[in-house]
Structure formats: structure tokens, C-alpha cells
Write a structure and sequence with these properties.
alpha/beta; 3-stranded mixed β-sheet; 18% strand; globular; binds 2-acetamido-2-deoxy-beta-D-glucopyranose
């Protein structure tokens, strides 16, 4: 659920989430007058909805159509034709035209990343030098500002603590894409991975699974990878130092900010609403908050295989938690859990020199904090 902003770019929503997880005292109404005003607005809105559209409130909810698509995908798969390999592996038949496949073994194919095709895959980036760590950043195609800020800050560090680190951006497609501009951007930086699924908030699980697909097919020799949102501060040095500590597992390792017993949100106007049809249980399995989680690079291939049989739902980080559960693997707490911070109240140079992640409010903050952190002189008094 920490992945809130990667597809929509709306800042602040992640803070809402974090605040809902770590409740803070908040004064909602400064006066009765504001409360009264809110009531009037709500009543007006309700009247309008009921009078202008003879539909239930749920049907008039704009996301309903999109969830409907999600639900349809689970029973009827509109995807290219497949053949089933003798060893029960599903192989995409690239030569055939899309057709409808009805098969129970394929019912979860909506999140299976090999149904989608790379438009840009930067095949070479991982072949020249094998990275110790790959940072994969889901980002909307149009969000050049976020990519540029990352390229000037944590994304520009290619050698960290003596290890090769690679930063790449993961994009879907959207209608307003300027294809030529994206190609130019990639020619300049060689860091865009794009796949042909629709880039949208509800499709973030697909985006994460395509990241896993890229890692397993294009960069299998890397030791570790991280999925990190585009609105994050990342102290790459501290992350590499953490990963090089003696006790850190080299396989089946997933760490970050651990979430235990998180309830599934059933309120239809929440950004994290998940219908019961998609995820029936009341709680999620243990997962790592989507803002930034780190894993050994043997896991992506296992997630890709799992996504054939784990029913997809629109909360990408909890989906990875579900894959871990189905794989029978436990999540690992970081050596210093407080290094994975979700929300900063005020910038503090000393603190930023010690953490690994922080959620930021804007790309400008990232540039400002980074410049300050990297200035000469010890960060702590
Ligand atoms: C897949 O392609 C092969 C040829 O490469 C063809 O024989 C087979 O019928 C195709 N399968 C489907 C399901 O279209
Ligand atoms: C998710 O991606 C698929 C594949 O591109 C697309 O058909 C679907 O409309 C997208 N769903 C949403 C809710 O954007």
C-alpha cells in the first residue's frame, strides 16, 4: 500500500497512508462553522448524484469500471494465445493474434508479466558490468521531473562502497505519451524500461511484476535489487553497507518496512480499496511497505512463476507479500529497522545521513536535501 504514488504521481497520498498506519493527532475542524459547511457540500453532492444518474452510488463511482475490468480478467482472459509446455509452463505464442483463452490454469494471467512485451528493455545495461544492486523505480511515463531529480541524486551513484549500482525506471504506456521524447530520453540516459501494459494506479501490481520479469530475464546475475518509488529519498551508501553486512542472506531475502496484520480496506472511496472478489481475507499477509523494499535477486524469477497462481489484486506490495507466503518464505526485518522511515516531519541532516529511506513531498525536496547532505563537513554535530 505504500506504492500509492508511483502510478498517479499525486503527492501527499502516501502521507495519508502513513498517517493512517501511525495515527497522529489531527485537528479536523477548527470550528463548528466548517463542519456545517462540509455537511452542506456533502448533501448537495449527494442530491446531484442521485438526481443526475439513476445509478447506485457504487455504480457512479468512477473507479468501478476499472475494478470491473480487474474482476473480468480473473474469469475471462483477453490475452495473446498461449501454449502449455509439457512441464506445465505457459509459453506466450508471439506469432499468433490475440484471442480469448478460457482455461482455469490461465485465470490469473492478468498479473503474469510475460503477457506483456517490452517496448524498451535496455538489454545491454546489465551485461557490461554485473551490478551488485539494481534500483528499479516505477514511474509514470510523463514524470520526467522525478526521473531527472533521481538522476541527479541517488540515481547517479554508479559505484557505491566499491560496488556497482544500477538505477532504472519502469514505465507502462499511457495515451498521452510522447514516444519520440521518451526514446530520446532513453538514448541519452539508457535507463528506461517500458512495457506495453496501461500505466495506471490500479495496474501497479502489473508494473511490479514486469520489474520482476526484467530482473529475472535481463539481469539475473545481480546480487540484490530494490523496488523504490519515485518520490523517495534513498541513502544508497547505507543500503549497500547494510547488504554487505555478514549475516545478510544471499537468497530468499526480502526486507524493508515490515507490515503485519494490515486490514484490507473495504471502504469504496479509499485509494487502497480492494473488492472481496479480488482478495477475500480480511487481512494481508506480512509484507514490506511498497515505498522501498529490498530483495535478493533470486526472488524475481520465483515471483514471476508464482504470479501464474496467485490471484492478482491492485495492492502491489501486499501482492508480493502474498507471493512470499505462497512460496513458504518468511520476510526478514532489516538489521536496523529504523533505517526504513516512511515519513519525515522535518529535514535533519544528521538523521538523513543515518537512514536508508524516507518519503518526500516533491522532487525539489530531493534535490535540496541531497545537496545539503552532500556538502562538506560532518553531518552530525
Ligand atoms: C502457437 O504457435 C505454433 C507455431 O509456432 C502453432 O503450431 C500453435 O498452434 C500456436 N498455438 C496457439 C494456441 O495458437
Ligand atoms: C491495465 O492494463 C491492461 C493491459 O494493458 C489494460 O487492458 C487495462 O485497461 C489496465 N487497467 C487499468 C485499470 O488501467
Amino acid at each position: 500500500m505504500g506504492d500509492s504514488d508511483t502510478g498517479s504521481g499525486a503527492n501527499g497520498t502516501k502521507r495519508e497512508l502513513v498517517q493512517s498506519i501511525f495515527p497522529q493527532k489531527k485537528i479536523l475542524f477548527h470550528s463548528w462553522f466548517q463542519l456545517l459547511l462540509l455537511f452542506c457540500v456533502l448533501a448537495l453532492g449527494l442530491c446531484y448524484t442521485l438526481s443526475s444518474r439513476p445509478l447506485s452510488l457504487w455504480q457512479s463511482f468512477p473507479l468501478q469500471e476499472q475494478y470491473q475490468w480487474f474482476l473480468n480478467q480473473n474469469s475471462r482472459v483477453n490475452a495473446p494465445a498461449y501454449r502449455i509446455h509439457p512441464k506445465n509452463k505457459v509459453i506466450l505464442n508471439k506469432t499468433t493474434e490475440p484471442s480469448t483463452v478460457r482455461s482455469t490454469s490461465l485465470q490469473y494471467h492478468q498479473a503474469y508479466p510475460r503477457n506483456y512485451h517490452f517496448l524498451m528493455d535496455n538489454t545491454e545495461v546489465c551485461k557490461n558490468k554485473i551490478p551488485f544492486l539494481v534500483l528499479m523505480v516505477p514511474v509514470e511515463p510523463k514524470n520526467v521531473a522525478a526521473r531527472d531529480a533521481i538522476r541527479q541524486t541517488w540515481g547517479k551513484e554508479n559505484i557505491v562502497q566499491g560496488e556497482v549500482v544500477l538505477t532504472l525506471f519502469m514505465l507502462g504506456v499511457s495515451r498521452e505519451d510522447d514516444v519520440e521524447k521518451l526514446k530520446q530520453e532513453n538514448l541519452q540516459h539508457h535507463d528506461l524500461i517500458q512495457s506495453d501494459f496501461t500505466d495506471s494506479y490500479l495496474n501497479l501490481t502489473i508494473k511490479t511484476m514486469v520489474i520482476m520479469d526484467w530482473l529475472s530475464t535481463h539481469c539475473p546475475a545481480a546480487a540484490y535489487a530494490m523496488k523504490i518509488d519515485s518520490d523517495m529519498f534513498l541513502n544508497v551508501d547505507n543500503l549497500v553497507i547494510m547488504l554487505k553486512q555478514p549475516g545478510i542472506p544471499k537468497t530468499n531475502y526480502l526486507t524493508g518496512m515490515l507490515m503485519w496484520n494490515r486490514p484490507v480496506i473495504r471502504s469504496k472511496n479509499s485509494k487502497w480499496y480492494v473488492p472481496e472478489e479480488l482478495y477475500p481475507e480480511p487481512e494481508y499477509p506480512t509484507y514490506t511497505l511498497g515505498m522501498g523494499y529490498v530483495f535478493s535477486n533470486d526472488l524475481p524469477e520465483k515471483y514471476v512463476e508464482m504470479s501464474k497462481s496467485v490471484k492478482p489484486f491492485n495492492i502491489e506490495d501486499a501482492y508480493i507479500g502474498m507471493c512470499m507466503k505462497k512460496l513458504g518464505l518468511a520476510l526478514t526485518a532489516p538489521p536496523t529497522p529504523s533505517q526504513f522511515k516512511a515519513y519525515n516531519y522535518a529535514y535533519n541532516r544528521c538523521e538523513f545521513s543515518k537512514v536508508i529511506t524516507y518519503i518526500l513531498g516533491s522532487s525539489k525536496q530531493l534535490l535540496d536535501y541531497w545537496t545539503d547532505l552532500k556538502k562538506p563537513g560532518p553531518p552530525c554535530p
